[in-house]
Write a structure and sequence with these properties.
Low-confidence stretches: 1-23
CATH architecture: Sandwich
Helix content: under 10%
Number of helices: 0
Number of strands: 11
Radius of gyration: 14 Å
Number of domains: 1
Mean pLDDT: 83
Structural class: mainly beta
CATH topology: Immunoglobulin-like
C-alpha cells in the first residue's frame, strides 16, 4: 500500500492501494535517471522538446516505478549545481498526473553550467536517489 505523506511544496505524497511492478514504460525519448545507491525503483524524465536555458522556466514530466515489491511512500525532486554547492532559487510544484506519472512545474536555472536533477524516492522511511546531469548554456 502507498501511504500519504506531504513534506512541503517540493514533495508529493500518494494515496492509492495499487503497487507498482515492472518497467516504467517511458517513451524512448525520455532520459533514464541513474541510481546513486541500491534501489528498487526506476525513474525516467522528460525535459520537453528544448534544452533548458538560463532564466527560462520549464516543466518536467516524470515516471517512477518499482522493480520489486517495495511501495513508494514519498517522492521529491530537486536540481543543484554540484560545483557551486547550491540549488535553484525557485521550488517547482510536484503533482501526480497518473499511475506512476508526475509533473514538476516551475523549474528555473538561474546560472549556466552543470546542473544535476535528482529524484528522491522514499520507501519505508529510507530514501533512494536517482539523478541525471544537464549542461545549461
Amino acid at each position: 500500500m502507498i501511504r500519504t505523506i506531504i513534506t512541503g511544496a517540493f514533495c508529493l505524497g500518494l494515496s492509492t492501494s495499487a503497487t507498482w511492478a515492472g518497467a516504467c514504460g517511458a517513451p524512448d525519448t525520455w532520459h533514464t535517471l541513474t541510481p546513486e545507491d541500491q534501489t528498487s525503483f526506476k525513474a525516467a524524465l522528460n525535459l520537453g522538446a528544448n534544452t533548458p536555458t538560463v532564466g527560462a522556466p520549464f516543466d518536467v514530466e516524470l515516471q517512477v516505478c518499482s522493480t520489486g515489491s517495495k511501495s513508494l511512500d514519498r517522492l521529491s525532486v530537486d536540481a543543484t549545481m554540484p560545483a557551486h554547492k547550491h540549488g535553484m532559487n525557485y521550488q517547482p510544484q510536484l503533482s501526480r498526473t497518473g499511475e506512476g506519472q508526475y509533473k514538476a512545474t516551475g523549474f528555473l536555472f538561474h546560472m549556466p553550467g552543470h546542473w544535476k536533477i535528482t529524484v528522491s524516492v522514499y520507501s519505508d522511511g529510507a530514501p533512494s536517489h536517482l539523478s541525471m546531469d544537464i549542461n545549461v548554456p
